[in-house]
Amino acid sequence: MTKLRRKFKLRIRKKFITAFSLTILKNMNLYKSLIRPFLFSFYPETAHSICKKLWKTSFIWNVYSRFLVNDERLSVNLAGLKLRNPIGLAAGFDKNCELINGLQHLFGYLVLGSITLSPRKGNEKPRVIRYVKEKSIVNAMGLPNDGARTCMLRLNKVQSIVPLVVSVAGFSVEDYVECTKLSQPHVDCIEINIGCPKV
Ligand SMILES: Cc1cc2nc3c(=O)[nH]c(=O)nc-3n(C[C@H](O)[C@H](O)[C@H](O)COP(=O)(O)O)c2cc1C
Question: How far is the CA of 93 from the centre of ligand 1 (A)?
Answer without folding.
Answer: 8
